[in-house]
Amino acid sequence: MEFPIRVVVYLRKDYYIMTVLKEKVSASFFAPYNKNDEPYIRIATGDFEELDSEVGRDDALAAYLHSFAHELTHYQQWIHDKPFLEDEAEETARLIVEQYGETREHP
């Protein structure tokens, strides 16, 4: 994946991220109108202990990787001036995590 414009990724210890529209989400991508401004991704990781105890460490980490891949898809949509399509972001994230999983014994 290419990154023609730097995108900073913030891992937050909060349980959720508050979007500019006041929505509580587990991850978000900020896409500035001006491509001279930096975009960023935020991922909430405050639920790690609960996820770890519920589904195990590997699946908990895979959930964060999925969120990261989902937001990276929105970054790519933004870079290419495409609409933000949630179905595409979900499918692409699933494929990215699946491909990554084939290269590692653990995430």
Which short descriptors sum up this protein?
3 helices; alpha+beta; two-stranded antiparallel sheet; single chain
Number of discrete helical segments: 3
- Number of extended strands: 5
Task: Work out the helicity level.
Answer: 40-55%
The stretches of 5 or more residues where confidence is low (pLDDT under 50) are none
Any idea what the shape is? globular
Strand content: 15-25%
Separation, N- and C-terminal Cα atoms: 19 Å
Average per-residue pLDDT, rounded, comes to 94
In words, what does this structure look like?
The chain contains 3 helices and 5 strands; from the N terminus they run E-E-E-E-E-H-H-H. It has a 3-stranded mixed sheet, with helices on one face. A two-stranded antiparallel sheet has the order 2-3. With 107 residues, it is an alpha+beta fold. It is globular, with a radius of gyration of 14 Å. It starts with 7 loop residues before the first strand and ends in a 6-residue tail after the last helix.
Topology of helices and strands:
Blueprint: E1 8-12, E2 17-18, E3 24-25, E4 27-30, E5 40-44, H1 48-55, H2 57-79, H3 86-101
Parallel strand pairs: 1-5
Antiparallel strand pairs: 2-3, 4-5
Short description:
The protein has 3 helices and 5 strands; from the N terminus they run E-E-E-E-E-H-H-H. By secondary structure, it is of the alpha+beta class. The strands form 2 sheets. The protein has a 3-stranded mixed sheet with strand order 1-5-4, with helices on one face. Strands 2-3 form a two-stranded antiparallel sheet.
